[in-house]
């Protein structure tokens, strides 16, 4: 009975939303969302034409019940890794679980990450971003869709609407941008603008106090000290009356891990996010989620989560990662 009631509620929601939603033509959809596809092309390397064609096809130009109810424009299902909101909808099977997004741009970003981080799609990124034909057939080969005509459908949408023109377009082509879109641009790679804010250098901050002959500093509202030569975590634990396990845990260190001199060691729990002036960080040689989390005074699990990754994932030099929630997400 509960399942029937839930289904009826969802049916009512979809019906009401569909009734209130003025249908978009394909031309209107492309005009409205092409900028998202271009932004994502520069961020991760998927041709904008492919992203737009998939969105048009999967969302029925933004008019499908699923896209209206959940902002899910690519029909991405929950899978075991999804921790966000969910909605249930009949697809290949009855009552399948689909991801729910706060807005449409979040759907585009998740689609990009889904392909970029999926091992079975890795070979696609060897294709030129102007070779939409190879991408279309590659998606089918990778198992993205069950429809045998999926590549032909994508190619027809691209050619009929000249979507290939977006594959050579810069994000700067879109002059009218909302504040959220401007903030999102800082994660775009290549010739597009990066964040002009340099990463923090908290070890250069003025100390706020001295205790037990240790200078105490503050970063992102959290106190930390610098581990001196011949000093151990055990010594810090005794000096500041913090249990060893807790000191390691607060710093995202593995218990017993050897910590080199000069390391920042927080003596209170780190924040969930970087300071508001920081949105993204460009990965330098040798940096990891752990070192970046320490730099910004934030918890490594949170940093990895907002980038839809795992803390142990290897980061490529030059990659831009978020240090706060995506600009389009509510805090």
Task: Summarize the entry for a quick read.
This protein has 331 residues and is an alpha+beta fold. Helices cover 38% and strands 9% of the residues.
Tags for this model:
four-stranded antiparallel sheet; 331 residues; Membrane-bound Lytic Murein Transglycosylase D, Chain A; disordered C terminus; 9% strand; disordered N terminus; alpha+beta; 2 domains; Lysozyme; two-stranded antiparallel sheet
Folded structure, characterized:
The chain is of the alpha+beta class and 331 residues long. The protein has 2 domains: 2-187, Orthogonal Bundle (Lysozyme); 194-331, Membrane-bound Lytic Murein Transglycosylase D, Chain A (Roll). Helices cover 38% and strands 9% of the residues. It has 12 helices and 8 strands. The chain has helices at 2-20, 26-44, 48-59, 65-70, 104-117, 132-141, 150-160, 179-184, 233-239, 244-250, 289-296, 300-306, and strands spanning 86-89, 96-99, 209-211, 214-219, 222-226, 264-266, 280-282, 320-322. The strands form 3 sheets. It has a 4-stranded antiparallel β-sheet. Strands 1-2 form a two-stranded antiparallel ribbon. A two-stranded antiparallel sheet has the order 7-8. Helix 3 (48-59) crosses helix 7 (150-160) and helix 6 runs antiparallel to helix 7 (150-160). The protein is elongated.
């Amino acid at each position: 009975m509960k399942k029937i009631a839930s289904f009826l509620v969802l049916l009512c929601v979809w019906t009401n939303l569909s009734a209130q939603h003025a249908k978009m033509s394909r031309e209107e959809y492309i005009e409205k969302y092409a900028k998202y596809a271009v932004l994502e092309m520069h961020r991760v390397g998927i041709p904008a034409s492919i992203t737009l064609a998939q969105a048009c096809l999967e969302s029925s130009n933004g008019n499908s019940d699923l896209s209206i109810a959940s902002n899910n424009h690519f029909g991405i299902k929950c899978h075991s890794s999804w921790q966000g909101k969910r909605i249930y909808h009949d697809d290949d099977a009855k009552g399948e679980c689909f991801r729910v997004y706060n807005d449409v741009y979040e759907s585009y970003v998740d689609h990009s990450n889904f392909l970029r981080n999926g091992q079975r799609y890795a070979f696609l990124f060897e294709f030129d971003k102007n070779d939409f034909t190879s991408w279309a057939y590659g998606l089918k080969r990778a198992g993205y869709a069950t429809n045998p005509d999926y590549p032909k459908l994508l190619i027809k949408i691209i050619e009929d609407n000249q979507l290939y023109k977006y594959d050579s377009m810069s994000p700067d082509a879109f002059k009218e941008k909302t504040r959220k879109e401007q903030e999102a641009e800082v994660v775009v790679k290549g010739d597009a603008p990066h964040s002009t804010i340099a990463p923090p250098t908290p070890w250069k901050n003025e100390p706020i106090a001295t205790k037990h002959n240790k200078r105490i500093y503050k970063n992102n509202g959290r106190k930390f000290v610098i581990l001196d030569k011949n000093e151990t975590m055990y010594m810090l634990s005794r000096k500041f009356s913090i249990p060893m396990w807790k000191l390691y845990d607060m710093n995202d260190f593995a218990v017993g891990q050897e910590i080199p001199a000069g390391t920042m060691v927080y003596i209170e729990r780190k924040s969930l996010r970087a300071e508001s002036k920081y949105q993204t960080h460009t990965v330098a040689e040798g940096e990891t989620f752990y070192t970046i989390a320490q730099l910004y005074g934030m918890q490594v699990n949170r940093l990895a989560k907002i980038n839809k990754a795992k803390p142990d994932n290897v980061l490529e030099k030059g990659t831009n990662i978020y240090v706060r929630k995506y600009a389009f997400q509510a805090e």
